[in-house]
Predict the 3D structure of the following.
Amino acid sequence: MDQDLRRSVKTIFHDLQCTANGLLHCGKKNGGLGIPKLETIYTMTALKMGLKFQLNSDPVMKAVFEETGLKQKLEDITRATRINLRITRIGQIEAHKNRLQEREIKEWAQLTSQGKAVAAFIRDKIGNAWLANPTIFRSSRLITALKMRANVAGDRVALSRAKITKDIEYRKCRAQKETLGHILGQCTYMKKERIEKHDSIKDFVMEKVAVHDKEAAITRDPTPSSPEGGSQN
């Protein structure tokens, strides 16, 4: 069922089916969509319910726990999930859930291409803020943002993983491989766009500060124009 769930979610977001599962299952604070695995939901729920039966002091409940096979089921689940059979509190189950999340992050980070920037997403409140409220984007931009987050956007290097091609140079400058890193942060051809985006973010922050703090002193540094156009911040 988890496989069907992943396939459906990737289809909804127009993502390639090869998109890392970590994007779906890692928590939003760690750069993913925070969609839990059905297997994890079932296991955690069963363990918590079983633990409540096990710790219940009522003789009737204890008898139900042992005679209906619930005790054996709990033992089977703990064995399958490699949890210490002698669990005595909910906190131990939550700790196991956290370990599963850490494993998901590790598996995502180990991917050669899609896992390159995973370490930078972990507990990044600013970088992951849009995941907490994805409605701030239009649906088309949200889809693009997710593809960029998973490094499966339509750049030539990403596309060449699906269909091998020799021509992977950036179509604009022809100087480097066409990767998201080069397009967004390195290519001189895109310098003007990067500066304009920087200035728009700066203006947005200044406007919000002015609205929320009427007494704030806001100073705008001079921004001389470069030959390519835009400011030289």
In short: The chain has two domains: 2-121, 129-212.
